[in-house]
Amino acid sequence: xxxxxxxxxxxxxxxxxxxxxxxxxxxxxxxxxxxxxxxxxxxxxxxxxxxxxxxxxxxxxxxxxxxxxxxxxxxxxxxxxxxxxxxxxxxxxxxxxxxxxxxxxxxxxxxxxxxxxxxxxxxxxxxxxxxxxxxxxxxxxxxxxxxxxxxxxxxxxxxxxxxxxxxxxxxxxxxxxxxxxxxxxxxxxxxxxxxxxxxxxxxxxxxxxxxxxxxxxxxxxxxxxxxxxxxxxxxxxxxxxxxxxxxxxxxxxxxxxxxxxxxxxxxxxxxxxxxxxxxxxxxxxxxxxxxxxxxxxxxxxxxxxxxxxxxxxxxxxxxxxxxxxxxxxxxxxxxxxxxxxxxxxxxxxxxxxxxxxxxxx
Length: 361
Fold this sequence. Notes:
Helix 10 packs across helix 13 (330-337). The model has no long low-confidence stretch (mean pLDDT 94). The chain contains 14 helices and 13 strands. By secondary structure, it is α/β, with parallel strands linked by helices. It folds into two domains: 3-182 and 342-360, Rossmann fold; 185-340, Glycogen Phosphorylase B (Rossmann fold), CATH 3.40.50. Keywords: Transferase. This is Glycosyltransferase involved in cell wall bisynthesis. Residues 193-326 form the Glycosyl transferase family domain.
């Protein structure tokens, strides 16, 4: 059986790319397609250890500026040509990969939704386009219609959380099953000797709301370490007080060292699933998180962390104060994290796809 993988694009190695690593490990794809591949070689090898040519589209020539042409993504996805002798297409979609066309009616297309798709044109229009959003309204409405139409192309959809599953039903009127993504917990070691600092990890981009975390810790004057890089980093450094440290990008060993000793992990963004809170729990580190999105399925309030109701610095401050009055069983927190291990994901997705293949035959 020949298998093809279709992804939106390859740029940085994050949570979605960890899923690709597991998918490649399980299925050993014969061909892979992406709108753009600008991933560094070291990151690329984490997904594809052997030299592996990626078939890209004309957007490749724009390099890291390809996102400026977001309005063409659906079009170029439709132009992707999967070989006719491929039996199974798996699309990994956080934007448009789900819209790939079959090249033969006998092909089975299963799409794994890494997130609410193409948030540029749906939930986060104002966040991405700001004051110009109203000017783009006709274009965005058109893209939404195309997006809904292309979402009907997969034979089956797998969502990475119940949160995304509900969104898929509401937005595309498609049913889906939930298979939680893999978390490589072997890189995160348990530590019960916590030190007196908090940690926040992730890409420093608008929707992660690191600005609110900085605002809160400026008031609290407690020690905070922010791990990650992104376009908001320089601005946050300018407004942060001396109790806040920015490390930039760190490798997994360095992240583990800091995360395992932190007294708590701060998570204020709205995530479709969110791998970082599970990595924190694998270290026995409690999570203080905004009560929305994927963390409702991964953090147990009062047992593995504290959930707060509003995405504001004031609500976060109250949660931190509550956290400091609460006692946690750190071993229990670590055990909870292992319900999201890589082996579980690979087993569940293999069984799901094998079942659909047998039914098709």
